[in-house]
Write a structure and sequence with these properties.
There is one protein chain. By secondary structure, this protein is of the alpha/beta class. Helix content is 28%, strand content 19%. It has a six-stranded mixed beta sheet with strand order 9-10-11-14-12-13, with helices on one face. A hairpin with a 7-residue loop joins strand 9 and strand 10. Helix 4 runs antiparallel to helix 5. The radius of gyration is 21 Å and the shape is globular.
Length: 329
């Protein structure tokens, strides 16, 4: 006999931690990261809130000596998210999609259904890497949703462990690693995820003021050409902290996909939860970046300017439509 205990049938499971949820609540009250006391890294003992553990815990009872645990987004359990044999009667599963429906069962019993909360961002945990987020899960201004499981942003991966590699390469299935660190030229010629992962090292500087130089404009064009080719997915892009250079590319991509500026800024500032420290969307560097983008639109609209910026650096309307087609539900 097998009894499924938790998560309960038709329940909704929370994926963000208490601190992550508090950060969003404060942001929605217009309380900015630079004024949130617990975000300041004055003491080494302060935790990294971008890698706090918060998965879904499964509990069951069975008289069988071992349990075959199955989890799938499909009622027929095709393409399972996880299938594992265990002697335990509990299991914690991380990195589930937000706003999703999941079925689970033990030893082929009648399955149970649960949902995950519709609250982005989707946080990914992989040992040795920080600040990993799925670009997907956010809704666009016209009510569509960005597909999950296709594009991720993160910190550097030089210290990734075998466990972390397993998550990103084998579970998440990363096919393309885009490294935005100019300082790594001559230092790396292969992704830490292995030789079978396509590796693209591009010359982005840590200085915001250099983002619009010819060298970095060409590098940005390369990023978006890579995003247009569905064979490259899933993709991860990152710099060192996964904050500024990564944040700039994410901003332009999110604008292209149709996210609201409010959500784009929240996604940018969510990096403040990581060990690199507070990122403030109204700081001088970031305001200068937005001002440059706004300059590409005759009406000074930042988001329209981001799209026209892509057109100005050689990304055709056809290529932009391919990216939208790849990433929008």
């Amino acid at each position: 006999m097998t009894k499924l205990i938790s998560p309960a049938q038709n329940s909704t499971q929370l994926l963000l931690t208490d601190r992550q949820r508090e950060f969003i609540a404060l942001y929605n009250r217009n309380i900015r990261p630079d004024t949130i006391r617990w975000l300041h890294r004055g003491e080494p003992a302060l935790p990294d809130y971008s890698i706090e553990k918060r998965g879904v815990t499964f509990l069951w009872e069975t008289d069988a000596p071992t349990s075959v645990f199955e989890l799938s987004e499909n009622a027929d359990f095709a393409d399972p998210v996880l299938r594992i044999t265990t002697a335990e009667s509990s299991l914690n599963v991380e990195n589930l999609k937000i706003a999703a429906k999941y079925f689970w069962r033990i030893n082929g019993c009648t399955p149970s259904l649960f949902f995950t909360e519709d609250r982005p961002p989707r946080i990914i945990r992989a040992d040795g890497v920080y600040n990993i987020r799925d670009i997907g899960g956010w809704k666009t201004a016209d009510g569509r949703r960005i597909r999950q499981g296709l594009v991720y942003r993160s910190s550097y991966m030089n210290e990734i462990t075998e466990e972390g590699i397993s998550v990103l390469r084998d579970t998440i299935g990363i096919k393309t690693d885009i490294d935005l660190r100019k300082e790594m030229f001559g230092e790396m010629d292969q992704s830490p995820l292995g030789e079978n992962v396509k590796f693209c090292l591009l010359p982005f500087s840590t200085n915001y003021s250099e983002f619009f130089t010819d060298e970095q404009l060409e590098a940005t064009r390369v990023v978006f050409e890579l995003l247009a080719d569905e064979k490259n997915y899933p993709i991860i892009f990152h710099c060192y902290h996964g904050a500024d250079r990564t944040g700039n590319i994410a901003y332009i991509l999110n604008a292209l996909l149709g996210m609201s500026r409010e959500d784009i800024l929240l996604e940018f500032e969510f990096t403040s939860l990581g060990w690199c420290g507070v990122r403030y969307g109204f700081g001088d560097n970031f305001e200068g970046f937005e001002k440059q983008l706004a300059g590409y639109d005759e009406g000074g609209d930042i988001l329209k300017g981001a799209v026209k910026f892509l057109r100005a650096i050689g990304i055709s309307d056809e290529t932009m439509e391919k990216i939208r087609g790849n990433l929008l539900e």
